[in-house]
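Hey, resending since the last one bounced:
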Amino acid sequence: MINLKENQNNYDYNFMKSTLFILSLLLSINSFSQKKYLEKIAKTSVHKFTYQRIKKEKNLKLDFYKPRKVKGLKPLIIYVHGGGFSGGQRNDKYAVDFSKEMASYGYAVASISYRLTMKGIGFGCKTKSDLKIKAFNEVSKDISYAIKYIIKRNRKFKIDTTKVILVGSSAGAEAVLNIAYVYENEILDSSFKFAGIIGMAGAITTIDKITNDKAIPTQLFHGEKDDLVPYNIAPHHYCKKENIGYLRLYGSRAIADQLKSIGKSYYLYSVKNGDHSWNSRPIYQCKNEILDFLYFDVLQKNERQTEVKI
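The structure tokens again:
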């Protein structure tokens, strides 16, 4: 005789078991997606590419770091090293440590070389201000060519072209802020827009171009006692007006105030007694703040206005 009650109980049990399995699977998938970009998920690899060939000069190269065995298109971080536009390397300790670390969280990272137009000239008060502005623009041009190179070969690089993020230290911060907010770009497609930017001890020549249309999520690290790149509004290197190198710059505080005034996303990390060493210290001391900004402000597009002061 068929026991209908027993069959029904078996059916209910199997149905419940299948349902719990599906729910568990969905939760595990969701859990993985939440951990990506917030927790380390992969080992990394690095490959070198020449992105621009220049006659009579060193060819420009980039080191491309990526998370291994992670499928799908990845957000791309462009890292631009410091060095006063006269020195520094794309593969110095800061660049390598930062690039490997970010790639282990699921990002692709391109650490780029650029033309050191101020080599042998310097960037102090005896260097003409128009040469300084030219240096900002020439590096912005090189950054543009690096991005164009990657996008053109995206079948190889597999990056999400809507999620390109700029990160720069010192001179590199000045360069990435310049390309995002000041530079008139004729290299990248007119529809291209950066997804976010992180500037460590950087400044720009004007805040007038930070408008509703141009504004992007911006994270800024700066020591208030920086004697090279002003925290707020002051001459570069604090040159006097009579110096040929006098150049009024707008630092992290001024940039944040402009973004705040137009209701746009920013994250300002100020160090009360901090000096210019805060152009690199965030790489090691503020990893959680960087990951938080990249995930919630850039990738999730939360419109936050955050200020931290230590």
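Residues 4-35 form the longest helix (32 residues).

Sorry for the duplicate.
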